[in-house]
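re: ur question from earlier - yeah i can do the single chain one, its not a big deal. heres the input i used so u can compare w yours
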Amino acid sequence: MTLGSTVMEHHSDHKQPRKYMVFAKLEWLVKEMQHPDTGIPVRSQKILLTSIPYAFTGYDLIEWLTGKLDICDIEAIHLASLMCQYGYFFPINDTKTLCVKDDSSLYRFQSPYFWPSQNPSPDDIDYAVYLAKRNMRSNKEKHGLLEYEQEAFERLKKILGKKWNFVVMQAEEQLKLAKDRKKVDKIILESQEKAFWRIHRPPPGHSYCLETGVPRNFHHSFLKRKKTEAELRREVELMRKLCKRPRSKVSYAIDVLLGRCETYMEHDPVLAGVLPSNPWVTDDQTFWHLNTAVVENPTEGRVKKWAISFHELLNDITGRHEFEQFLRTEYSQENIRFYNAVEKLKSCPTSEVSKCVMDTYIEFLADGTLHEINIDSVTRDAIKKELEVPTRGIYDVALDHITMLMKKDSYPRFLRSEQYKQLLANSIQRSTKKK
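and the output i got, formated as tokens:
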């Protein structure tokens, strides 16, 4: 991060953390962890002859998360590692990887001052002071800079230029103040500060969870504006229309859905099984032969499906053919033939639309035709006017009228007819054995 980017972030977000909702949830959980009675036990831990103050183990952390949030161990480890990467606690010994382990590894809570909500984008000058302070320490083996930190130190020294004297003065002053602290407090503060910069200035090749992408020089509050009276009136009118719109009760909708599921359950290959055999599993092709578009003897399930709704009958080519045979006995086969002609018009090539429109008109609507359909004069006159510029939807109104006529009149008689009963009696009984 350069000085320029820091300045841009200051003006764009006013030091407001961009993930404040995530931070609020995590910080609530951390405060619960630090509760003196119900939180994670924090005490001095001994490793060989060394006493490590204010630490807790990975065992205690994972056990507390599983009990508090009622989650499994895998979820608890993932959540703990995420909180560690955000900087709410940190490993004491292994600082290279910010992953929580369900073992005796030691961890320490981070000070609230170093939480990401308090320091959304730390300044390069603060980082330079921290590196300079460590570089001034006499014990290089314990406090010396790592290779990537040494490179950052040299780079910041060149970038800051005249401000470097200020950085050195700040580092010296902080070292003087640290001498007056107790040894335990000094160790804890140094570990917390080191963990903080491990999060915000990670080594090369490590992820940075708090990265926010390219900053932009605007704030969300700039987009807010007061609505005009006309806009408010439109909203009120829209709300009134929505309140008047009829709605179905949830209980009624559930009953309808359950009824549909019960009706179609025996025709669902997933719920009822693929009969007589599954062609995707076996080499038997009987299923394909029985369910081709046009068959002489349909299966029992196929014939029963025609009785569910008129839509199911029209969608089946074999069912439509049987229905046409029935309408011939009633001398009204022109209705289903008109339906077939309009469906053909909707799927024909664009170059043949005009021809199909005229052929359909001559066969079913022209004066004196043998297969004239029964529609009102208003619809007939509207179709005549549209013949000058024929389209695929020219017969939609007439088709709706004929379809409703067949549904209300001819379809119920077809289901009660001897023809349908004979089809059901002669239908192929599929084996109930599932292979």
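Residues 396-416 form the longest helix (21 residues). not sure if urs matches, ping me
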